[in-house]
Amino acid sequence: MPIAYPAVLELKSPEEALSWKDRDSMLYALGVGLGSDPLNEKELPFVYENGLKAVPTLATVIGMTEGYSRLIARSGVNFARVVHGEQSVELHRPLPAEGEARVAS
């Protein structure tokens, strides 16, 4: 079944509040492989509480809210048959390790 691109591009979701904690930042960093070498000083700030930093791509995960999931369901696309080809994030300053935001798609 072909994808109706104009219809999919017009889909919008309502604005939602979201939040993440230090623990979420550390778990994400560990999940993408940071911290596997506990002596690597470049990775330590992403997995240790003291001076914690967030991996910038965490933004792609925290932005997947319930409204986003409903939006995907309304698209009519069978995501079991789709190859994820590209995704981008534009950050204007470092993502805090803990915070709140509002998101709309």
Overview of the structural elements:
By secondary structure, the protein is α+β, with helices and mostly antiparallel strands. The chain has helices at 5-10, 22-31, 44-47, 58-62, 66-74, and strands at 16-20, 99-103. It has a two-stranded antiparallel ribbon with strand order 1-2. The chain is elongated and about 50 Å long. The chain starts with a helix and ends with a strand.
Structural features:
single chain; 105 residues; alpha+beta; two-stranded antiparallel sheet; 32% helix
Summarize the helices and strands and which ones pair or pack.
Blueprint: H1 5-10, E1 16-20, H2 22-31, H3 44-47, H4 58-62, H5 66-74, E2 99-103
Antiparallel strand pairs: 1-2
Q: What share of residues are in beta strands?
A: 5-15%
Number of E-type strands: 2
Number of helices: 5
Low-confidence stretches: none
State the order of secondary-structure elements, H for helix, E for strand.
Answer: HEHHHHE
Strands ordered across the widest β-sheet: 1-2
- Taking Cα atoms only, what radius of gyration do you get, to the nearest Å? 17 Å
The largest pleated sheet is described as: 2 strands, antiparallel
In short:
It is built from 5 helices and 2 strands. It is α+β, with helices and mostly antiparallel strands.
